[in-house]
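Hi everyone,

Forwarding the result from last night's run.
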Amino acid sequence: MWQTCPDEHKFSNLESKMKLKAFLLKSGEGIIDLLRSIDNPKRFEILSLLLDGKETSFSNLLEDTSLQKSALSNHLALLTERNLIDKKSRGNYQISFFGEILLQRLTNTFIEAKVREQENLVHLFELIGKKMEYIDEELILSTENRNLILKIVKLLPMRVVSFHATDSKTPEDDAAKMVENWTKEKGLLDDPNRYQVFEFNNPDPQKDNPKYGYEFWIAVPKEFEVEDDQVIKEFSGGLYAVMSCRGVMNIGPTWKKLVQAVNNSEYTLTHDHQWLENNVSPDIKDHDKLRLDLYCPIKE
């Protein structure tokens, strides 16, 4: 379920990357050998059939796969040798912990790649003013339900320009207008993806008060010149669980799923650093198409 971003957490420095490189170069044959063990459609089917975790008999696998006895025996022997399945008593088979993890990681990678591929196609069609006649709704729904990829990210310390609207019934719009005016004046709208933009409630809305606050941060380098009257903050960074969602209406439900996922993990929620949202599609104005990364602060 958890995917750690190599370039942002465990492998965030050159030394760690060099260690990973050395490991991959030394273990390449073994990794390729493991991947080859599932590059056969029937072996992949066997693993998938066992994914429910129940012990399954040889005869049931024979019926489900339509294989000959000798062929099924050979496939089962190879998967057992690679520790992807376990052979139980009385000729029953069960997927191993490693086999289950491998399928989960492959599925996550596959869906993420397909989502990116589909988004690129949609974007290309939008550029030429056409709509796609076919969109894989099942893929989108299944991906949204599991909120794309859950990642562990370490944000490094950063210098941010703050835009803060308070005591308002529409603080998001008020703060967003400040950001738009400032970025337009600076010419930053010419390249909306160059600077990271984070946002969050400040303070959170209360049941008995319709007014609350909202703040935007724009991360800028140290040499970036900012007016004296503009608020500058130094963010110390921190460790985050990150989940993606599509559309403004999905922000609340996704936050709930993200918090639940953290509570069910080896990580712990913390208030030591700020809860954040990152709009990864700042050039998209349609609220139903916005792509947001939600950053939940955690500690190990």
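The CA atoms of residues 11 and 19 lie 9 Å apart.

Cheers,
N.
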